[in-house]
Design brief:
- The protein is an alpha/beta fold and about 375 residues long.
- It has a 10-stranded mixed β-sheet, sandwiched between helices.
- A hairpin with a 4-residue loop joins β20 and β21.
- α7 packs across α8.
- The longest helix has 11 residues.
- The radius of gyration is 20 Å and the shape is globular.
């Protein structure tokens, strides 16, 4: 291994993983988490929910199908670093427009290959997610360990401010078609929806459009009175990164909306909804990141396979009857869905808009439109 291609990952507990650099050179810190999805690395890289985190892909072959401009979930990648077993620099896919390596270089994302990701994943599963530092320029483990132990973690940080839009915009793009790509949907007799951007994924917006919504995306800090002044039929609370508790402005705005307009939340939006009711959230040991999480809908007893990306969860006992549990994770029994008891509002912790999949929970967008119609 030549020195200019070397890369090293050091965890806060002193664990060291050496490998080969690809992507951009440099040094980054972040919480190291693992994702169990078999495909969709481009969507993962561009999911704003990963702000502040470095992602370990458990699937061993990454880069095989390259990168294209259609499969992004936001305007740029937000991960702090990318960790894989084997990087394939010769993609085979008719939709590919560039290699993953060149894409990461262009966007300043530091990456490492050649890591024993199975051992790293087992370590994170057993010991919990850890802060890590990934470097292609400094290989002194003691110095790196000092840096990572002094780095700021996710708890108590408002990361939404780094990913939200700065001004409102209108969204009309619907689902993807093999022949035409993403289609613009004509707006007629639609439900007018205001979507709070806490780090929103584009496929959420596409699913709202498919369900018949005329969507306007607004900054996370927009006061609820300004939202109500737009006279929406419903308000959507998006996904986003990190700890929900420091996002106090969003919590207060949600309190002002409840009972005045139907509300639907996903992921961070779900957690913020719980906090707006006076509930509490807590950090999970290693979070849920991947496309194969089993969730039971308690209304139907059906099990959905879901895509998830979160490191915090809502404590239902703290809600004191203001909301009822509607969905539960079958792996660890954590909260996956809530429905308010006195006002039209509901939320889920997982991602029904998942792209490339699974699509078991698409019905939730129709549930939102039925709520607005009712």
């Amino acid at each position: 291994m030549t020195k200019d291609k070397k890369a090293v990952l050091v965890l806060e507990d002193g664990s060291v993983f050496e490998g080969i650099s690809f992507g951009a050179p440099g040094e980054r810190t972040g919480e190291v988490v693992f994702n169990t999805s078999l495909s969709g690395y481009q969507e993962i890289l561009t999911d704003p929910s990963y702000k502040g985190q470095m992602v370990v892909m458990t699937y061993p072959e990454i880069g095989n199908y390259g990168v294209n401009p259609e499969d992004v979930e936001s305007w740029k990648p937000f991960v702090e670093g990318f960790i894989v077993r084997n990087y394939n620099g010769v993609p085979s896919n008719f939709r590919s427009r560039q290699t993953l390596d060149s894409y990461l270089k262009k966007n300043g994302i530091v990456a490492i290959e050649g890591v024993d990701t199975r051992a790293l994943t087992r370590h994170l599963r057993d010991q919990g997610s850890k802060m890590g530092i990934l470097s292609t320029k400094d290989f002194d483990v003691k110095r790196l360990l000092k840096k990572v132990r002094g780095a700021e973690g996710l708890v108590g940080r408002d990361l939404v401010q780094f990913v939200t839009t700065r001004k409102p915009y209108h969204w009309t793009e619907g689902s993807w078609d093999l022949k035409t790509g993403y289609k613009k949907k004509p707006i007629k007799k639609s439900f007018k929806v205001i979507a709070y951007d806490f780090g929103i994924k584009r496929n959420i917006l596409r699913n709202l459009v498919n369900a018949g919504c005329d969507v306007t995306v607004v900054p996370a800090t927009m006061p609820y009175k300004d939202v109500l002044a737009k006279k929406p039929d419903g308000v959507f609370l998006s996904n986003g990164p990190g700890d929900p508790e420091p996002v106090t402005y969003a919590i207060e705005n949600i309190r002002g909306l409840l009972g005045k307009v139907p509300v639907f939340g996903i992921c961070l939006g779900h957690q913020l909804l719980g906090l707006s009711l006076g509930g509490k959230t807590y950090k999970l040991k290693f979070g849920h990141h991947g496309g194969n999480q089993p969730v039971m809908d308690l209304d139907t007893n059906k099990v959905e396979i879901t895509s998830q990306n979160h490191g915090f969860a809502v404590d239902t006992d703290s809600l004191k009857g203001k909301a009822v549990l509607t969905h539960v994770n079958l792996n660890d029994k954590t909260v996956e869905g809530l429905k308010l008891t006195k006002v039209p509002a509901f939320s889920v912790q997982y991602h029904p808009e998942a792209s490339p999949g699974p699509h078991d929970a698409n019905y939730l967008f129709e549930r939102f439109t039925k709520m607005m119609k009712g």
